[in-house]
């Protein structure tokens, strides 16, 4: 299962065996029977209709995929192959101006099932609707979306568009690079080596059991590109690579004064003066990891920094999430996570400014 096409400001790529890999030729007219279209999108605050992705081709037959936001708010998807057409409308409610969002369209042709979803930048579900009898793209369509700027155009608020040959799970997505050190009862270990039953030592010095270790590979571009948290920020003993959506905990007198709480949480990507976006180094993809613990409210000790683990959240269907492969008996009885107040980017700047 791979990401096979990538379009962005600096990228026009298609690789049917996976980005960054060489492989055998394919039948371009064959359908992608399962797949995902992921769009990194920052909505314009205006009320006019907004094109997001527009792909139209007339040879060897009429085909296309159009994704847009209508003037009254909903997302609209229309995809077709010849006379076969599938459409969906997704009401999305209120979106803050210039908020980083992700649009995820997935299809499974053998199951005649598709979903159009609006996600926050960490893959958490904001809204979704079913796409009845979705019309799969062909491999030729995927190549054109990845490379042909005449047949496929991106709207002004789009940072990237990527295609995968599998159904991509929703979040909350893991956000730690594979080698990120997590404190365990056996010392610090790379997060990617943790397994069900391992014991971690939390940032508060307590022991907690790993119920599941999840990972996801995503395009490393635009708002999805990894960031570098630099030591000695907030007690870090070494630099670590994380996803911009990975939540970390902040504490101290500034937090208590501003928010009346011992701890709050914020996304790593909002720590503007303590992070930097990793440069485009030729790697189109990055795999992130994180763990689900048996106790809610615990914080991982990641190179000395308090970091939030995965959380189940409210009761719901996990089949479409990164925890979809977890056996039900491993699910913690208490589904809550760390009940810390989330900060927006302006509040984070206020905390950092008070640190001088």
TrEMBL record:
Hedgehog/Intein (Hint) domain location: 175-299
InterPro entries xref list: Hedgehog/Intein_dom
Highest taxon of source: Bacteria
Pfam families attached to this UniProt entry: Hint_2
Protein name, entry field: Hedgehog/Intein (Hint) domain-containing protein
Organism encoding this protein: Roseisalinus antarcticus
């Amino acid at each position: 299962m791979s990401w096979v096409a990538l379009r962005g400001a600096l990228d026009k790529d298609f690789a049917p065996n996976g980005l960054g890999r060489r492989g055998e030729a394919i039948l371009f007219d064959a359908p992608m029977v399962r797949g995902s279209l992921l769009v990194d999108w920052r909505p314009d605050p205006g009320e006019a209709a907004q094109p997001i992705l527009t792909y139209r081709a007339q040879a060897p037959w009429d085909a296309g995929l159009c994704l847009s936001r209508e003037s009254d708010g909903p997302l609209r998807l229309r995809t077709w192959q010849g006379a076969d057409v599938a459409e969906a409308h997704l009401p999305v409610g209120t979106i803050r101006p210039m908020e980083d969002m992700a649009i995820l369209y997935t299809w499974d042709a053998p199951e005649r099932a598709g979903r159009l979803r609006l996600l926050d930048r960490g893959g958490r579900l904001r809204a979704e609707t079913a796409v009845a009898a979705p019309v799969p793209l062909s491999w030729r369509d995927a190549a054109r979306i990845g490379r042909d700027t005449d047949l496929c155009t991106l709207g002004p608020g789009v940072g990237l568009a990527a295609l995968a040959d599998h159904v991509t799970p929703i979040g909350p997505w893991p956000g730690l690079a594979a080698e990120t050190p997590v404190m365990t009862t056996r010392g610090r270990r790379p997060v990617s080596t943790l397994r069900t039953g391992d014991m971690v030592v939390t940032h508060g010095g307590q022991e907690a059991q790993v119920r599941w270790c999840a990972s996801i590979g995503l395009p490393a571009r635009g708002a999805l590109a990894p960031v570098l948290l630099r030591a000695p920020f907030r007690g870090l003993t070494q630099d670590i690579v994380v996803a911009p959506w990975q939540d970390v905990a902040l504490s101290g007198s500034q937090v208590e004064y501003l928010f009346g709480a011992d701890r709050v949480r914020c996304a790593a990507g909002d720590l503007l003066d303590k992070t930097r976006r990793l440069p485009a180094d030729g790697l189109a993809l990055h795999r992130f990891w994180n763990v689900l613990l048996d106790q809610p409210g615990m914080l991982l000790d990641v190179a000395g920094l308090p970091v939030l683990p995965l959380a189940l959240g409210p009761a719901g269907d996990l089949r479409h999430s990164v925890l979809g492969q977890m056996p039900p008996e491993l699910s913690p009885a208490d589904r809550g996570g760390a009940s810390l107040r989330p900060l927006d980017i302006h509040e984070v700047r206020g905390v950092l400014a008070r640190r001088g």
